[in-house]
Amino acid sequence: MLWGVVPANIAYFGAYEAGRTIVPKVADGLSPVVQDMAVGTVAQFLAGAVYTPIDIVKERLQVTGLPKQPVLETAVSSGCCSLSPRLLLP
What we know:
- By secondary structure, the protein is an all-alpha fold.
- It has one domain (2-88).
- 68% of the residues lie in helices and 0% in strands.
- The chain is built from three helices and no strands.
- The protein has helices at 2-22, 32-64, 71-77.
- The longest helix is centred in the middle third of the chain and has 33 residues, at 32-64.
- The protein starts with a helix and ends in a 13-residue tail after the last helix.
């Protein structure tokens, strides 16, 4: 579980802090609520892009059982790490 949570939190908080410097400030006429929502949306999107593939591999391993070969090799051979979005759907 930590293999998914830690990278996702790093992506989320890193994107959140970077987004706070990019999104226009309250002094530019933007409401603080709108600013926080915009930054949080971008941060959550990036964290989801990191966490979703890891979570899919974890769920497939839970359904099929642990393989006799290494987990990363199983993920690559089963197509979980390919760039096709079709494989990310249940």
